Amino acid sequence: MLRADDSQxxxxxxxxxxxxxxxxxxxxYASRANGHQYECKTYDLAGHYNDSTVGIFVPAGFTxxxxxxxxxxxxxxxxxxxxxxxxxxxxxxxxxxxxxNAILIVPQGPxxxxxxxxxxLEHEPGAFSMLLHRIAGFLMEQHVIPAHTINNIVLxxxxxxxxxxxxxxxxxxLPNKITDVLLFDSAYGKLDGFSNWLASGPHRxxxxxxxxxxxxxxxxxxxxxxxxxxxxxxIMRKDLSPNLLxxxxxxxxxxxxxxxxxxxxxxxxxxxxxxxxxxxASRHEPKRNTGPHVCCHRRGADLADPQNDERATIRDRHHxxxxxxxxxxxxxxxxxRARHHAR
Length: 343
Prior knowledge:
It is built from nine helices and 13 strands. The protein is α/β, with parallel strands linked by helices. The strands form two sheets. An eleven-stranded mixed sheet has the order 1-2-5-7-6-8-9-10-13-12-11, sandwiched between helices. The chain has a two-stranded antiparallel ribbon with strand order 3-4. The longest helix has 15 residues.
């Protein structure tokens, strides 16, 4: 039996990485059995929809727990592949620097193709759950974790990754395990998956950072959310504070109010998603503009003053952040193809 320090794992100062193939991965899948056509070019099955790779990163500071494991799952955008994402966008370094006790999972979608279809994770009921449980079992076999119980999940998507993320929320089978959703210029479609998930349970937060490419989609998403009990707050970019994106590393002295009889579960501290950390993924600093930046939604009381309260984002409330006009901002997976419109 292979162990996490065997040759299959690439070890760096940030942690350990492996690129493994799983039959539960997005592809190959029937939705692209005949490939895909875009702008008179054909992207065939063999070259673009036959890779079942999933990238897995275990940060050096990860502490295994018999209580289970938490995951960060990222859905990449157009014209990309998993091995490039890890290096070009410094995903390992971001997760390691965040000190989040979670494992990063990046499934391969369309391989270097201008396509937003995410195969079985978008279309097949329960596929997301099956993939994560399969990965948890693999990590147990590799002696990375002692138990395959899945605790909390954070989902993120860049641009064309919206289909896989929305599908995972709607039919993936683990909606109550997902605590946070982060969209990086990704509100192109399937918006009901985001708004319905946000409004359907406690302890949930949505953050969407966008440029002009997805301005209309984010306006539509905002209007859908405003029809629910989720409270909203709009923030300009110049007023954005990292505290709006952070969740408390330790529980507050006042226990959160649960909306169910079940005990409130802990949430993942998203320190890696601060504006500074997001910008570190880019080779360029963001331009200093003052366009619209953040809109927060959550059910319950107004947000605390982020200047005076490290716990400005409360764990037991719905919470969405809509950020806009980040010219020059790449974010987690925001690369050179930002102007290639994913549909």
